[in-house]
TrEMBL record, chains A, B, C, D:
<dbReference type="InterPro" id="IPR015424">
    <property type="entry name" value="PyrdxlP-dep_Trfase"/>
</dbReference>
<dbReference type="GO" id="GO:0016829">
    <property type="term" value="F:lyase activity"/>
</dbReference>
<keyword id="KW-0456">Lyase</keyword>
<dbReference type="InterPro" id="IPR015422">
    <property type="entry name" value="PyrdxlP-dep_Trfase_small"/>
</dbReference>
<dbReference type="Pfam" id="PF01212">
    <property type="entry name" value="Beta_elim_lyase"/>
</dbReference>
<dbReference type="InterPro" id="IPR015421">
    <property type="entry name" value="PyrdxlP-dep_Trfase_major"/>
</dbReference>
<protein>
    <submittedName>
        <fullName>Beta-eliminating lyase-related protein</fullName>
    </submittedName>
</protein>
<keyword id="KW-0663">Pyridoxal phosphate</keyword>
<feature type="domain" description="Aromatic amino acid beta-eliminating lyase/threonine aldolase">
    <location>
        <begin position="2"/>
        <end position="284"/>
    </location>
</feature>
<comment type="subunit">
    <text>Homotetramer.</text>
</comment>
<comment type="similarity">
    <text>Belongs to the threonine aldolase family.</text>
</comment>
<dbReference type="InterPro" id="IPR001597">
    <property type="entry name" value="ArAA_b-elim_lyase/Thr_aldolase"/>
</dbReference>
Length: 331, 331, 331, 331
């Protein structure tokens, strides 16, 4: 009964099917028919023109997107517990050629206009201090919290006013959209670039970088190749992305993961450190309680000394979620 | 009748099968059982200890390998038509943080101790000039020529004597090994790192970086993550690599591609620009002749104004190879 | 009556004199007799072998020193108000090719073994997190506090135990040494590299990078050239450094600046935010008080909303220091 | 009798004088009155608006200028013997974050529209190949040859047409201008950025980066700081530059060096490898002849096996030039 992460869950059968179908083509790189369909399909989904580039990891997606907005001498404003700061092995420093991350605190790993301003207003406009070039937010956040449309709008407005690019790390964008029960466009707001996550949601090895600025798309294409991320059999990545979009599989899968998370959340409401607005639960529990849960066969990560993190996935079994709910209720 | 490249050929059924089998696990990154098997399997194949890391592209493999040998202020000696110089979109400059490629001419896109010496001996040992830190050779070369064991040994000996690392780009290492009819160990010689190519040889999206120096392996692991190349479902890459090794599928596939190339070569012997020692043919032919071939349904790249490049793959059909042989003979 | 900074103070007459004398030579780069004397002179001063390289700025000195210890995928532990973090325009990100600064809080802008441990102990030894490669401390600190020999020793011991390099930013090393009334060697402790500052202490445009590891010196020489910091008339930088060492001018100048700072400190003891152990004073005072001081002709920087920073220099006039002391006492 | 180089020649008395005068100010960085005068003074000299930034070396000037034109994934077209390729220790790779130098052959180390086109036209407009972002030419060239106004214009026109920035390395711009007997503006043509050299021409440690694009100036200011090239006592660099401009000292000095070169050239006309259009002479002579010259007390560099390089400077003594002329004539 695995709740460690959604990042290595099984591949959805429809994704497998699409990948097999893609084997028929032999056009290299992103010259195949599937890759060429991506721009139109994602533009349609988001209701505005974008370029859609596949890459194999969320880290590559985030960093390539940011590289279109941030010069080497600039900085990205992000939450101090953002994935790009905590879990990407310094990839932003690599991709952005030494640009800085300006870390901002805040509830639920979310930024607000206030916290962004508090970080950037003290920066003197002189060459001794690194100037912000972009803001990056995570939808859903690293604590499983979803930005509402007005929250994104407020940050986007501040970013625009200050001349900053706005990037959204959407590793769990599907879960946020499903939770918010809104359109993709509403969940993304006026971001300039979005890392549209699929791997945690049933794909094997494909994320989409969505770039709403055509000039940025051109840069990202060169940078993707330069980073060794332009696969010669890219059709298999395109196939995964298209399979996720087809029939809204991305939402279907996310709803399943969210529902499992909600069931568990219901049983542990008083222990929750953050509202459950996606498929992650951060649950206060003692070492002894965690040990008891592990004895019952549940897999999960400790979260500091006094909590545990549980993540559901598109394929979390109903009985496993129910069992965890019972176990948490019974602690 | 496609002879454009082997880089986007179909995925071998045994690779598909292994990938499906890998779906059962859900251990993330390279913590799964398949990934953990790689070091032992490749060490066995090469008869000496190595660390084996999967990555999704040959560019990433080459650059991560070189990054273990070359400091940002150093240089890599390579052929002026090497893939790292010509076709990787500047990836070495990115991964090596601005280190330089020192370009060397030479027949068949091969280096020799003499040409390497001619490039590095004039470099004064002072800070005004970039010093070589490594040599990179391609097996088989960009013109489909295989280095014999004594040729690699001579370069390795020079590299060792000058304190340079030795990297081998083995995007078509299988084809070279099959042609030489020797062991993997003999085809690689005393290189410090090898990009063991599989994608052009029946895999979907996995190459192996083989590092024969344990300290280098540690650096490469951090750099792989930092480059966004550590896939969370890495088991699917490991599965591909293991499938290629299983029952020597890698050699089996390469032999098939080589045999098709030899059949075609036999029919165009007097037109060959380079000996055919792998699965690539560079064939002198006029624009009119190329047009005639295309009229007959053959796909291939022009190679300058007076030649064409034909590449066979593991799945080139016998009848297509025969047809091309006939067509070339009939020109 | 200027207390803005020591960083642009006049050049000491003996420095001018040495520079003029250097004009006689015409050996380029660091091949002149003066540059060649540096290793021996600094090795003598510190009582252990070191390589001494001139550079034109403290930023270059810090970053080139760190570049010998930190790989691009690593990190430097430093205080959150360290000069390298706050005031170098992102130079560490540039020179270290994207390596990270791990920021540590602490009284007086000083690190302790405890705060360093608190920063690095939670870092899991896996590739997802950036690993520390070095620690950087500032002597005297950014708040004008001097590390005692045992404090440096404790940090050096921790660094050694964890395999981390130890760098000391000595932009005001002279002031710290003068305050501690100890030898250069005692003030530096077992650091691996020291940025020996002269520019704030009477030189024009020369700092010394001292590298106590010969391998590091070799790297730093290449990196200095690569950063455009190898001046062809380097003899004028060497001359400045030698003039500072001659007759202990560096200590003489620092003592003068420190004495002026102490006189002022004596008059504002109850307003001091930090002990005055070099030539900087951080003084609590209201906006109105600051305005009053400015009306009296004193130049200085605001330090947040409720304080001011005063910096003395080697050439601060006794009457100016006395006047400031009186003015502060009279607030 | 020193003809090794002009790069370490004595500092002109008027430069010393200006530096001493600058000691009176204590405004830091480039906030002093002298630094603030630079834009206007250079704009006047060149007859169009530019930003003028001091830096301490030609390498820094070239690389910072190029960094305003070239993205990390791009390339600079330059001569294969350009200083940026041969003598800057890989600094372009560092400052341009791994961008490439595309090397072009050509007589006299000069580029022509034809050779530039030959280098860039074969580059396919796809992500596998590094795209040119700028062209860099050297005035006077590394072989002491001056570009005529129409030659620069032709290159500038090509650059503009292809969307490439145009940089001029003017380490010996003064010598070229003096030789051409034209205005600064005519010698520079329509370049986007110029490294205006002074150090080889009587200054101590100051070159000017001239940026004719205001947006580029902003980037260059941040990058200069980030590279550790923003000196806190920058007034001493500004003073040098202003002294060079004052009364056309830059031309006066260059004319002196050129005249000495011409005298020598006159005596060795049949041995010259390149026309002498600045202050460098490349003279065919055997090892025995070089030995004979050295015996007579002349200092110079060998240039390959069959030639020598002689460089005159602003302060080359008439009798030394005459002696060398006689000696060469007498070989």
């Amino acid at each position: 009964m695995q709740f460690l992460s959604d990042n290595a869950a099984a591949v959805h059968p429809l994704v497998w099917e699409a990948m097999h179908a893609a084997d028929a083509s032999d056009a290299p790189y992103d010259g195949d028919g599937l890759s060429r369909e991506l721009d139109a399909r994602f533009s349609h989904l988001f209701g505005r023109d974008c370029a859609a580039l596949w890459v194999a990891t969320g880290t590559a997606a985030n960093c390539l997107a940011l590289a279109t907005m941030v010069q080497p001498h600039g900085a990205v404003v992000c939450h101090e517990e953002a994935h790009i700061e905590m879990d990407e092995g310094g990839a932003p420093g690599f991709y952005l050629h030494g640009a800085k991350l300006l870390l901002v605190p805040g509830e639920g790993a979310k930024l607000t206009p206030e916290t962004v301003r508090a970080a950037i207003d003290p920066i003197r406009d002189d060459v001794h201090q690194v100037q912000p070039h972009a803001v990056s937010i995570t939808q859903a956040s690293e604590y499983g919290c979803a930005y509402r449309a007005d929250e994104v709008a407020a940050i986007a407005s501040l970013a625009k006013q200050r001349g900053l690019g706005l990037h959204m790390d959407g590793a769990r964008f599907a879960n946020a959209t499903a939770f918010l029960d809104c359109s993709a466009s509403q969940a993304a707001g006026a971001v300039d670039a979005l890392s549209f996550g699929c791997i945690k949601n049933g794909a094997m090895s494909a994320e989409a970088i969505l770039l709403f600025d055509p000039a940025a798309a051109d840069v990202a294409r060169y940078r993707r190749k330069r980073a060794g991320h332009l696969q010669s059999k890219g059709r298999f990545l395109a196939a995964q992305l298209l399979a996720m979009l087809e029939g809204d599989l991305w939402l279907h899968n996310a709803r399943a993961a969210n529902a499992a998370a909600q069931e568990i959340a219901g049983a542990a409401a008083d222990r929750l450190m953050h509202p459950v607005e996606a498929n992650e639960l951060f649950v206060r529990c003692s070492a002894a309680e965690r040990e008891a849960l592990r004895q019952q066969g549940f897999g999960f990560y400790d979260w500091g000394a006094d909590a545990a993190r549980f993540v559901t996935a598109w394929n979390t079994r109903a009985e496993d979620a129910a069992a965890l709910a019972r176990a948490l209720a019974g602690l």
